[in-house]
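Final report, closing paragraph on structural work. Over the funding period we assembled a curated collection of sequence-structure pairs, and we close with a single example.
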Amino acid sequence: MKNLILLLLGAASFAIPGSVSAQTDERIPIIFDTDFVMPPADDSLALMLALQSPEIEILGITTVAGNDSLERATSDVLRMLEIAGQPGIPVYRGADMPLVHEKSDFAVRSYGNWYSDEPPPPPPGGFATKQIENEAAVSFIVRTVLASPNKVTLVAIGPLTNIAQAIRAEPKFAENVKQLVIMGGAIALLPDGAGNITPNAEYNFWVDPEAAHVTLRSGIPIELSPLNVSRKSALTKYWYEKMVAVETPLTRLLKDTMGARFAAEPDKSWFMYDQIAMASLIDPSLVTTERLYVDVNIDHGISYGVSVGGRKIWPGAELAQEMNVQFDLDWTRFIEMFVARVQAPLQGERKRAAEE
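Its predicted structure, as stored:
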């Protein structure tokens, strides 16, 4: 009897490793807006973290062109949900091109395939049997937010095209969003503020500067996770090997898609971008922020897509909004939490076991 009591107590106190609030019934309802590509892309690792976090309830996933085409983002995320054991999460197809930004020779020569309409390559394990929802992403986003005023958080880790279209589609939308977590931008005022696609522009904002401009000026409470904080990360072979030391469907996928990278360049490290934005919603104490006014340049010149942050309003940015801007990271706590989460038993399997 004593052993049975101890066993029951242990089961009752079980929490996903690194859990912040798994002991409560409170979960953060989110819409996950993503230019998804399978690992080693950062969107996929951010989704793994969200799927494996009991603090998070994913109401739906909306796809957008960015890292690659909309077709690939949609195809890959459908397959990821199957691998992660959560095929019940609905996926909605979003914008296949930015609001204004057109394909250019520079875009073709540089990173990304956002302008493409080519058929997507098969994801690991082949195309998903899970199907896309019939409803469009913007319709789903607006409908879900208005149905639960000030309850839904948007996590946007690609170009902000879907979010800007939702803002424009419904005048009451912005005022009813609880919070918007964005991975995007690079703030020169803070350390590590250079761009990663042009000298001063960050990729997500550069792909659709007009969408970023609309979104940042919308009045939605924003937590901005720019390149500044991403550059405080360093995914090395050491952390990769710790990650895949436990065999799960997620770590097998990481091993299959990232193993060659670390074998070929064992001394190199990679930044983590979207993963930090997602983690900061789960545990805000992982990041250090400063309140800044942030705006985006939409002039079609050398500073197209550049985000600018200031402690006070400056000429030309009179409509800029104040927001939290991340600039530092508790790297060790973050990566330890990430490793623990992807190694844990699949949340989808645990949910089904509990229901049975």
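The longest strand covers residues 287-296. The radius of gyration is 20 Å. We thank the funder for supporting this effort.
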